[in-house]
Amino acid sequence: MQFDDDADLDTSEVPDVRGSRIPGGRATVGGGIAGLIALILGLLFGVGPDQLGLSSGDSDPVATVSPQAQVEAACRRGSDANTREDCRIVGVVNSVQGYWRAEFPRRQGRYADARTVMFTGQVGTACGAATSAVGPFYCPGGQKVYLDLGFFDDLRDTFGSSGGPFAQAYVVAHEYGHHVQDLMGTLQRAQDGRQGANSNAVRVELQADCYAGVWAHHATTTPDDRTGRPLLKQLTDADIRDGLDAAAAVGDDRIQERFQGRVTPESWTHGSAAQRRQWFYNGYRTGDMAQCNTFA
User: Fold this and answer.
1) CB atoms < 10 A from the CB of 285, how many?
2) Model's pTM, two decimal places?
């Protein structure tokens, strides 16, 4: 996965509140055993904590201290995205949003930007307060993605993913798949409270995987808004394998087998490892969001 060294990065799309505290209130899901249980119940790669029963009722508080200036200074060019993890996230967000900004008008729609908030420990959102134990998530109330970079260590060390830069890109692109669903009115289908292999919750997650694959298909050919050149110069077969491996690592069956010792499809919320791989690859192979109808 290689960015154009001379490409400009837009850090305004990725507010950085790492090291900040939440004014008032506290998140209701802690780390340790409680956080691990939250993860193995399938809360990672989800939508906002209000829909997961983790909300403390806080209303999108603003961090008291922000290291944003440090990211703005460090993440200026594609060469920075090739060498720094936080800058890589900025580059991926720029690329993903650049694709959807171009794609929506082709389908007689209008894309609304969503920012990705990088945080550590806990964060306040329009969906309530949450901790890193929730994993990356999209909050439809504020139309933002929330990401603790420490999750990528968990993805590799706890869930057995091969890791790699494109595994991280897959995570980000999946969350923006939820934003696309939000704009198209399909995200709300997951809010019926049902679980299971054939539930709407699973279908929504698999569609987000497919949308992530659609972006990957176009990532090296979509011109950047500012330069007219793609931000990403190269995605290799190895990169795509890392993405597929990350998708499989967070399949409900893999997580249940690893932490419960048994698989219970009636409690699935995200789909099996095979399904997640299949739908990501389907999006990557076709490059067509119309082929991502997991509800059919």
Assistant:
1) 14
2) 0.86
